[in-house]
């Protein structure tokens, strides 16, 4: 009867290692297919402040819009389709809807269950009319949306502005925060030892340590306070300073990719540290995790990936999801 | 006042729908079932659900405590409530409630030892009809003896129903007796529910109960009538003959 008490809700962690310059490396697919990201955090040991180039990449992340009470059929408007959806990447996700309670709507840049780029969805066609009337009359879905678009063309801007002008909207920029941590015990990682057999720590402990750094949980395990007994996993070194930078908002895969390219150039000059890490968190209530793999929320809606970059362009990729998800690619 | 507090807390805890329970004990003589207070009278503004842009939804629920099938006579007063529950005190009434009564919820005793055993046939009958079994968790919070009864009765129910058609509700009278939804889903593990059933007991099953309650106001669960505001012409009056008098439609 009580076998269930021992089990926790299932979570999956997929780890792989490769090199950015390898021809079969799939890092660009992984980044571009993870559509809805709400937070990116970068941890760089032995670094005091963001370099000017990194700071400029981060500050150039695209702005996004919060639109209130937008009916879904507006996405099918002819002008909007032609200038915005077909001409560049548009991402939209319903805002403040829980996937385990409400209708959650997401607009993916390429394939939707209503495939907006399919020829049969030509605005004059019958199928388009049927879908449009369905969304307008039979299932009138309205929601607050977060809309983000990767810049590509003035026509698109005009069509988007005309859509926005019909509803209540507000423009937002991603929020950036960074701080320098002093005297931080850091795990030592070696590019060839992904599993943590000898020269590195194992992936679960490493990710737990990263989480502790992001959440500001101290890994001292001092006897003075019993709030936390987290310790930095072995093998470890003590670094005098480390940079922790987070960006949050509706973050587009294209922007994250440019950040990744800039981080790859970090090791062009000699540095004290041998690794740095980039963590990207997906929205907990997004209907999809990678590509169009379904994502659900059971007791936790995590869907994130973490890249550890090494000096010689080697990298590790950890992808984590929760119980109601399909295995990441 | 307590009602208001409870609802504010619920909006902070993250529940999106709440039912106010009116209990009537039909075992005592001359008990009348009154009309519930209109929900709009109780609140000036409905609090927003935490993390959403919608306000909380409030329903009225009637719980009838009875020991004899003749006590339970559904009439027009029952229609005023969104949900109807019955708390059977005898095996005969439990059987009748599972198989025939027009109720949405059957309450399982949590404050005393279950006076009868759960037999498979009425439980399966209830599951087929879309009736749900309710386990209340607040008595378990109040007192350790009641905690034993709650767990024992819940486990005995799970052995018969295999975790299907169960909802876990609060029955709270004070705000401090409320707990968050994910905590209750975990509490379900102690009652013998699996991970998925525990989460369903506070989410999908509760929504199913709500929809079941709504079907009592419709004809055969398909046709839903609404009052029209405009004055009717003669032809429109003919069309507004109650659906039950029309040719019967096959239930899907």
Which labels suit this protein?
heterodimer; A: 329 residues; alpha+beta; 2 domains; seven-stranded antiparallel sheet; five-stranded antiparallel sheet; 8 helices; 23% helix; B: 252 residues; alpha/beta; six-stranded parallel sheet; 11 helices; 38% helix; globular; disordered C terminus; rRNA processing (chain B); Pol/histidinol_Pase-like (chain B); RNA binding (chain B); acetylation (chain B); RNase_P_p30 (chain B)
Proportion in helices of chain B: 25-40%
The low-pLDDT segments of chain B are: 234-241, 243-252
> How many beta-strand segments of chain B?
6
One letter per element, helices H and strands E, the order of chain B comes to HEHEHEHEHEHHEHHHH
- Name the chain pair with the biggest interface and residue counts per chain: A-B, 17 and 16 residues
Number of helices of chain B: 11
Strand content of chain B: 5-15%
Side-by-side strand order of the widest sheet of chain A = 1-12-11-10-2-9-8
Tell me the number of helical segments of chain A per DSSP (H or I, 4 or more residues long): 8
Helix residue percentage of chain A: 10-25%
Explain this structure to me?
The complex is a heterodimer of chains A (329) and B (252). Chain A is an alpha+beta fold. Chain A folds into two domains: 3-61 and 174-322, no CATH class; 64-172, no CATH class. Helix content of chain A is 23%, strand content 29%. Chain A is built from eight helices and twelve strands. In chain A, strand 11 and strand 12 form a beta hairpin. In chain A, helix 2 (27-33) packs antiparallel against helix 8. The longest helix of chain A has 13 residues, at 126-138. The radius of gyration of chain A is 22 Å and the shape is globular. Chain A starts with a helix and ends in an 8-residue tail after the last strand. Mean pLDDT of chain A is 81; it is low at 112-121. Chain B is 38% helix and 15% strand. In chain B, strand 3, helix 4 (91-99) and strand 4 (105-107) form a beta-alpha-beta unit. Chain B is built from eleven helices and six strands. Chain B has 252 residues and is an alpha/beta fold. Chain B has a six-stranded parallel sheet with strand order 1-2-3-4-5-6. Chain B has helices spanning 2-13, 39-42, 76-79, 91-99, 120-129, 138-142, 144-161, 181-190, 195-200, 204-215, 234-239, and strands at 17-25, 57-66, 83-88, 105-107, 132-136, 166-169. Classes of the chains: A alpha+beta (329), B alpha/beta (252). The interface between A and B is medium-sized, with 17 and 16 residues. Chain B: Residues 232-252 are annotated as: Disordered. Chain B: It holds the Pfam family RNase_P_p30. Chain B: This is Ribonuclease P protein subunit p30. Chain B: InterPro entries: Pol/histidinol_Pase-like, RNase_P_p30. Chain B: One of its GO terms (molecular function) is RNA binding. Chain A: Pfam families: Ribonuc_P_40.
């Amino acid at each position: 009867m009580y076998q269930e008490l021992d089990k926790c809700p299932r979570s999956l962690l997929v780890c792989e290692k490769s090199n950015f310059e390898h021809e079969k490396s799939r890092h660009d697919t992984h980044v571009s297919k993870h559509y809805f990201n709400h937070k990116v955090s970068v941890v760089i040991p032995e670094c005091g402040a963001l370099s000017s180039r990194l700071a400029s990449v981060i500050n150039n992340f695209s702005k996004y819009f919060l639109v209130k009470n937008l009916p879904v059929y507006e996405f099918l408007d002819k002008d909007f389709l032609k200038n915005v959806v077909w001409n560049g990447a548009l991402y939209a996700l319903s805002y403040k809807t829980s996937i385990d309670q409400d209708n959650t709507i997401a607009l993916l840049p390429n394939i939707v269950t209503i495939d907006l780029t399919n020829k049969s969805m030509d605005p004059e066609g019958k199928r388009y009319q049927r879908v449009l009337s369905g969304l307008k009359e039979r299932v009138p879905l309205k929601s607050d949306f977060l809309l983000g678009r990767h810049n590509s063309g003035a026509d698109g801007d005009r069509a988007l502005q005309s859509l926005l002008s019909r509803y209540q909207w507000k423009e937002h920029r991603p929020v950036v925060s960074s701080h320098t941590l002093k005297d931080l015990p850091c795990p030592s990682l070696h590019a060839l030892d992904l599993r943590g057999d000898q020269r590195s720590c194992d992936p679960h402990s490493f990710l737990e340590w990263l989480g502790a750094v992001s959440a500001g949980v101290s890994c001292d395990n001092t006897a003075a306070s019993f709030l936390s007994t987290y310790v930095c996993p072995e093998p470890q070194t003590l670094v005098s300073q480390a940079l922790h930078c987070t960006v949050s908002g509706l973050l587009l895969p294209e922007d994250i990719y440019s950040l990744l390219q800039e981080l790859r150039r970090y090791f062009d000059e000699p540095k004290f540290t041998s690794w740095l890490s980039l963590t990207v968190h997906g929205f907990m209530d997004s209907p999809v995790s990678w590509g169009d793999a379904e994502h659900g929320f059971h007791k936790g809606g995590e869907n994130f990936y973490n890249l550890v970059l090494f000096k010689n362009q080697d990298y590790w990729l950890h992808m984590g999801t929760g119980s109601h998800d399909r295995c990441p690619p | 006042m307590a009602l208001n507090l409870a609802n504010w807390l619920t909006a902070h805890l993250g529940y999106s729908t709440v039912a106010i329970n009116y209990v009537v004990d039909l075992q005592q003589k001359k008990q009348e079932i009154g009309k519930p207070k209109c929900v709009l009278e109780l609140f000036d503004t409905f609090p927003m659900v935490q993390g959403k842009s919608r306000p909380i939804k409030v329903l009225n629920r009637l719980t009838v405590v009875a020991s004899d099938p003749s006590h339970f006579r559904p009439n027009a007063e029952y229609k005023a409530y969104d949900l109807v529950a019955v708390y059977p005190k005898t095996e005969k009434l439990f059987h009748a409630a599972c198989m025939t009564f027009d109720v949405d919820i059957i309450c399982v005793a949590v404050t005393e030892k279950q006076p009868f055993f759960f037999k498979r046939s009425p439980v399966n009958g209830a599951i087929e009809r879309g009736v749900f079994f309710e386990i209340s968790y607040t008595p378990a919070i109040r007192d350790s003896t009641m905690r034993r009864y709650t767990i024992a009765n819940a486990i005995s129910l799970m052995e018969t129903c295999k975790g299907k058609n169960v909802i876990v509700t609060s029955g709270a009278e004070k705000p401090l007796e409320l707990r968050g939804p994910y905590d209750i889903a975990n509490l379900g593990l102690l009652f013998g529910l699996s991970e998925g059933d525990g989460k369903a007991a506070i989410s999908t099953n509760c929504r199913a109960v709500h929809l079941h309650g709504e079907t009592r106001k419709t004809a055969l669960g398909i046709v839903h009538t609404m009052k029209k505001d405009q004055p009717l012409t003669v032809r429109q009056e003919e069309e507004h003959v109650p659906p039950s008098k029309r040719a019967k439609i096959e239930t899907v």
